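tool=predict chain=A
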Amino acid sequence: MQDKIIHLPKKDFAGWCIPIGYTTEQYYNVEVEERPSGFSICIQKKRFPAPVTHTPEEYDFPDRLYADYRPGACAWGVLQEGEPVAVIETEPEEWSNRLRVTELWVAQGWQKQGLGRALIDLAKEQARLERRRAVILETQSCNVNAVDFYLHEGFTLIGMDTCCYGNNDLQRKEVRLEMGWFPKRGPRLDRNDVEIRRETPEDFHKVEHMTQKAFWNKYRMGCDEHYLVHKLRSAKEYLPELSRIAVYNGEVIGAIFYSRSRVQDGEKTHEVLTFGPLCVDPHWQGRGVGEMLLRETMSLAAAEGFPGIVIFGEPDYYPRMGFKTCDAFGITTREGKNFDAFMGIELSPGAMQDIHGKFYEAPVFEELSSQEVEAFNREFPPLFKQYFPGQFL
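tool=predict ok
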């Protein structure tokens, strides 16, 4: 079903009314009892005397895609003859670092085909790519099918609002329920359990496949970092003596690749390092693997006498490792620019104090044709390209 889901651009679908309606014979009865020592809450599935139907017409504000009060919303769906038959909309809660599913709907004739699960999986993937701590959503206590679906997909009850839709929600058996899904991450790996070593030719394909999974749909639809790894190994600027892979129980779970780069100050050239890609298999992210690779290889680079490292990387991650924006060193991009993702670090105190100018990476970073990337992709199990709002392109 993933291959049927496409991004629904705001310019084309803003204001599209979602015909959410359902008939139910059951409800989750919510009872709240105030006690001297606190409150007692009981939520129990019960049956209506007769089926109850809810339609969009009964609400003053029917659900619409890209509502004005959701400035950060992004929607995906399945189209039939240009009209949505299934949609999901999400919006990040930046203050709490959570991702909220604001809309989820599958048309009657398209249900029971796995579309709901595929749409929810897309939201979970967005949360992983954006490093959100939870996916949250709202449903109603009388929408039993929806509640049971979310429970099946790993969500759990995280809260409720007994007067969200009206002051008699408890009596009408339509209480707003908040549900949440939390990415499961294991504990940080112990350095003694991870083998960090140079890769061998026997590792090449596994490393490239791991790299593809780590970057897929992160910065663009699909990725080309795995092909960069393939090409980098034969570039004259590549430094295999500094590059390393991380192996756990025989599985390649991370890698870092170094190459020579330069800072040009008029006629004066300063050699510095660049690493990239630095990647960790999605299953092992958030468990300290990237930090292990980076710290260990930075020590190797310092011992080899390199003055520092300049990278284009995630500004929410690398400053924790000591990286600073390159304006602190008087270094700009080749276009003379500086921004948060353009960072550097000295490998010994004061080693970059006299290095100023424009930064240039190895040519291989700019020699990745889309046609070659697509051909290279055929060497791996197929993955579906998808748009996510954090992508650069």
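The chain has a mean pLDDT of 95. Residues 115-129 form the longest helix (15 residues).
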